[in-house]
C-alpha cells in the first residue's frame, strides 16, 4: 500500500457510484472534478480535461464514492494517551502521540472531527498548514468542570485552587479546566476561546471515566451555566455539555446550551423536550466493551450508561431529534481504532443511509454552529457537491447495502482525499 500527500492541479475521479451525503439514493456513472481544495464539478457526463499537465485521473470502476466521515465527539489527546501518560509522561510525548493519532484517524477515513476536550488547537493549526496529516478539527480546548466534577482530574487530597492549591496536571496541559463560581467560569470560557476553541465544552453531570461523581449528580448551578453560554454567544458560538440524566439535561437546556453530549439516561419526556427546543443530541452508540474500567464503581456506571443507548435512540427517532454521532473514546490508546466499528454500529439503530447521512452532512450541520469561529467556512463540509471541500472516500463495497464495510478502512478504503490532497491511494 502507498500513502501519499499531494495535491495535483486537478483530480478527475471517473465512473463512480456517488453518495453525496444528502440524498437517500446514489447516482451511477458519475465523474467528480476537484480543483485545489474544492469540488468544482459533479456530472453524469464525462468531465473534460484529462490530457492536460497537472491533471490526475482516477478510474473509480463503479465503486462507491462518499464524503469523508466525521466524528462529533473525539478526544484526540485523550484518545492518544492513557492516564499514566497524562500524569507522568513528558508534555512533548502527549502532543507527539496526539499528532500520530490524528494521522491514524485520517487514514480511517475521518476527514473532520469535533474535539470535545484537549489542547488540539495547536495541532489543528499545524494540520491546516500542511505540516502534519490529520482531519479538520473543531477544538473545544479544555473541558471545563466544577471541583469534584466530571473533568476534575486532581487527586482527592489536592487543595483546590480556590483555597490556594495549584492546578492539576490535566489543567497544566490544557486537557481540563476546573472553575467554580460565575467569575471563574467566565474566565475559563474566555481562556478557551483565546486559545482557539470553536465551541465550549462544559461537564454538567457524572460520568463513567471520572472518579468523584455518581451519574446522578447535578454539576454547575444555572447561573454558572448561563454565564458560560453568554460568554460563548458573545463570541458567536455555543456551549456543548457532557450530561446523561433528565435533570441535568433540563438544566442545560434551560440555561441555553445548544448540544447535549451523551444523554443516554434521558427519559421520554426529556427527549421530547430536546426535540421541541431544537437542541442537538450528540450521541454515541456505546457498548460495554468500548471502555474498560478496572474498578467496579466505574464499570457499573459504564454499564448503566450503555443500557440506555437503544431506548434513547428510539425516542430520538420518534420525536425527530437532531442527532449527531460520535465516539468519546478516552484514555485507552489501544482502543482508538474502534472508532470505525462504532461508526458501522450506528446501522444497528438507523437505516444504513440514515447512518451515512449522520456520519457526513448531519454532523457537519452541528459543526457549522460554531459560526464565525469555524475556520472552514470557505467550503461546505460533509457533502460532495460543487463548492464543497474536497474530502471524500472511495469504498470497495456498498455501505448502503452493508454498512459494515466502513468498519475496515484499511481493506475497504482504497482512496482517501482530504482538502483536495490524496492522502491514501491503492486504487
What do you see in this structure?
The strands form 4 sheets. Strands 1, 2, 3, 4, 5, 16, 17 and 18 form an 8-stranded mixed β-sheet that branches. A 5-stranded parallel β-sheet has the order 11-12-13-14-15. The chain has 14 helices and 18 strands. It has helices at 76-80, 83-88, 91-107, 121-128, 169-172, 182-194, 222-234, 246-255, 268-276, 296-307, 309-319, 338-345, 352-367, 409-412; strands spanning 10-18, 27-35, 38-43, 55-59, 64-67, 69-74, 110-115, 136-139, 143-145, 176-178, 200-203, 239-243, 259-262, 280-283, 322-325, 392-395, 415-418, 421-425. It is globular and about 70 Å long. The longest helix is centred in the first third of the chain and has 17 residues, at 91-107. It is of the alpha/beta class. Helix 6 packs parallel to helix 7, helix 7 (222-234) packs across helix 8 (246-255) and helix 9 crosses helix 11. It folds into 2 domains: 10-68 and 379-425, Urease, subunit C, domain 1; 69-349, Metal-dependent hydrolases (TIM Barrel, Alpha-Beta Barrel).
